[in-house]
Design goal:
Layout: H1 3-16, H2 20-26, E1 27-35, E2 39-42, H3 44-56, E3 61-69, E4 74-85, E5 90-103, E6 106-113, H4 116-124, H5 126-131, H6 135-156
Parallel strand pairs: 1-6
Antiparallel strand pairs: 1-2, 3-4, 4-5, 5-6
Helix pairs in contact: 1-2, 2-3, 3-6
Organism: Terrimonas ginsenosidimutans
InterPro entries: NTF2-like_dom_sf, SnoaL-like
Protein name: Nuclear transport factor 2 family protein
Length: 159
């Protein structure tokens, strides 16, 4: 099996177990991560995000499939996370397409793509249905995610 495929399988298998330490170990120290909620995270921010999400996960289930190695560096896969969104108590099923760049046995770039408006509909119910398409609500969720990550890092990652 290709080493890059093994790294991706290790990352998502660890995520299934909410094993953030193994997930973090799959990342380069200079990791660049992006998605529609956290927008852009680098290095320790990206690693801390996975720790925060794993530690706060409720009724969590993850599946992954279709790992495709595009060349020696780039790969994609699909993954689905099902969980209870803690702020509203609503069940979310988020279907995601991941794009990764790997080098020297580590993930160095990771981008998750999904429709934020669909996520907002599930996470916030009628408010998400009515306002989830608006930039105002999307920016509000992004700002809250950033604020939550900063607070988590301040509390948990003191050196």
């Amino acid at each position: 099996m290709n080493n890059n495929k093994q790294i991706i399988e290790r990352f998502y298998s660890a995520f299934q177990q909410l094993d953030y330490k193994t997930m973090q170990d799959c990342y380069s120290d200079e990791i660049v991560f992006s998605d529609p909620v956290f927008v852009l995270l680098k290095g320790e921010e990206a690693k801390a995000m996975w720790e925060m999400l794993c530690k706060h996960a409720k009724d969590f289930k993850l599946t992954f499939s279709d790992i495709e190695l595009l060349d020696d560096e780039y790969a994609t896969c699909k993954w689905t996370a099902t969980y209870i969104f803690s702020k509203t108590g609503r069940r979310v099923e988020n279907k995601i397409k991941a794009f990764m760049r790997l080098a020297d046995g580590k993930i160095i770039e990771h981008s998750d793509a999904f429709r934020l408006s669909k996520w907002l509909e599930q996470a916030f119910g009628w408010k998400g249905v009515l306002f989830g398409w608006t930039g105002f609500m999307k920016r509000g969720v992004q700002k809250a995610a950033r604020k939550g990550l900063v607070a988590f890092m301040d509390k948990n990652l003191k050196v």
